[in-house]
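User: Hi! I'm working on a homework problem where we have to compare a predicted structure to a textbook description. Could you give me the structure for the chain below?
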Amino acid sequence: MKKVVIIVSVIIILLSIGVGVYYFVTKEKTDNIKFKEEYEALNGESIYGKKVLSIDIDEDNLMKYATFDEIMDVLESGTGIIYFGFPECPWCRNAVPSIIKAAKEMEIENIYYFNAYEIRDIKELKDGKIVTTKEGTKEYYKLIEALGDFVGPYDGLEDESIKRLYFPTMVFVMGGKIVGSHEGTVESQEDPYKTLSKQQEKELVKIYKDYINKIYGTCDESC
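Assistant: Happy to help. Predicted structure tokens:
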């Protein structure tokens, strides 16, 4: 009888471990697949009056959907790479393949993905006065504060003190300290509705890899 109890206990433990492993793997896979489907779903669609860039995204793309609290944890005390973007953004669609390529070549664990589009404010300059047509959420303003000088001024307002998070923005954090950020793609790209050239892609991948190396490599300030 005692032997039977031991066998049953072992079986229960093994099943529990199996369920735990299955849940973990499935959750990670779900994030990857969700990201792939979210971005590829717009292939061939017209947005903002133009046909968006069609992109193919690997299933093992390393993207991890993060909550606002998770993003703040990384910015305040964590280490990791954060991608701020959204699927309809033409510049984002150009940057994503290079982001994934750089991350995979550097063999990092994941990229935190946060879509901050809906929480941003919208401001404009009217008759010399700054008018807010859409107020940002409290989370957005907290995020802007946390990013500090790693986000630039709001274009067109003629006030350098007002910041805005533009997309795509990559933020690289080590031990709660931002070691660098990169907005957009490369300076030579003028039309986000056209695919980056091989040379432009190579340049962008290197930019990302240099920042990643600052976090996970043996890079000094000269990187």
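For your comparison, note the following. The mean pLDDT is 89. Strands lie at 46-47, 50-51, 63-65, 80-84, 111-114, 122-126, 129-134, 169-174, 177-183. Good luck with the assignment!
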